[in-house]
Amino acid sequence: MTDNALLNLTEVEAIARNAHAAQTDKAGRPYAEHLQAVAEGVRARGGDDEQIAAAWLHDAVEDDVVSEDWLLHKAALTRRTKDIVMALTRRPGEPPESYAERILATPGALLVKESDLAHNANPARLAALDEPTRTRLAQKYARMRELLGLA
C-alpha cells in the first residue's frame, strides 16, 4: 500500500462520524463531539496524523461501530494507526492494569489516551451527569491516569 492510497484525516473523520452517528454520550450529546475533542486534543499535544486518525477511531471497534476485521484488514490506514486503535480497544472483562500495560507498550497510544481521558474527565462534561455517575467516572479516570503515569 502506498502513502497516497491511505485514507486522509478528512476521510477518517467522515468514517468515524458516520460510524458513530447514532450514538450519544452519557450526557446525551452526539458522540462525534467526543471524537472531535479527542482528535483536537491529540493535535494540541503535538500528535501526528497517525495519532489523530487513531483518535477519531479510538472507540470504533470497542463500540462495535466498525469491525476489527475491517480495521485490521480493509482500512487504508498505517499499521501504527491500527495498532494504536487496537491498544485503546478494551476487551470484555479486561482488568484496568492489563489495558494500561497495552497502551504503554504501543508507540503513540499514550498521547491518544491522555487526550481521551482529558475530555472524559472535563469538569464541564462531568457536570451534566448525575452525582453517582460523575463520582464513579471521576474515580475510574483518575485510576487510569495513575496506571498510565499521568497522575
Describe it.
The structure is a single chain. The protein has nine helices and no strands. 62% of the residues lie in helices and 0% in strands. α2 runs antiparallel to α3 and α3 crosses α7 (109-120). With 151 residues, the chain is mainly α. This is HD domain-containing protein. It comes from Streptomyces xiangluensis.
First-last Cα distance: 39 Å
* Uncertain runs: none
How many individual β-strands?
A: 0
Helical run tally: 9
Nearest-integer average pLDDT = 95
Strand content: under 5%
The secondary structure category is mainly alpha
SSE order in H/E notation?
HHHHHHHHH
> What helical percentage do the residues reach?
55-70%
| Largest sheet report | none
Overall 3D form: globular
Question: What is the rounded Rg?
Answer: 15 Å
